[in-house]
Amino acid sequence: MSKKENGYSEDVSILSDGVNIEGKITSNGNVRIDGKIIGDVSVKGNLTLGNSAEIKGEVTAKNMTASGKVEGILKIEDKLTLESTCVIKGDIITKILVIEEGAKFDGKSSMTQSSSYSSTSSTNAAD
What pTM, to 2 d.p., does this model score? Predict the structure, then answer.
């Protein structure tokens, strides 16, 4: 298993269409999901959801590109891309949010900044 300088594996784990999982999924690398997951998904690398993917649970990842369906909270560290076939029911927390025409999103979104930016803002607000 090879690792990048950022600490997560370059390898990609694939959960194919037809795979149904109930439970928590964690990965130190990149993951592509085309199946159905009932439970939380935590990925230290990039997460890709194909058109047939369905997740019910909390999703955390470094970056995420979604074409499938998610019902739950999405906590994406850097960039979340909702492609035209994507359906999201739940709240989104991310730094960068890209929503393509046709994507459906029902929930709240919060655009977060790095922790150093937040502490600087808090310090300046107190002055």
Answer: 0.82
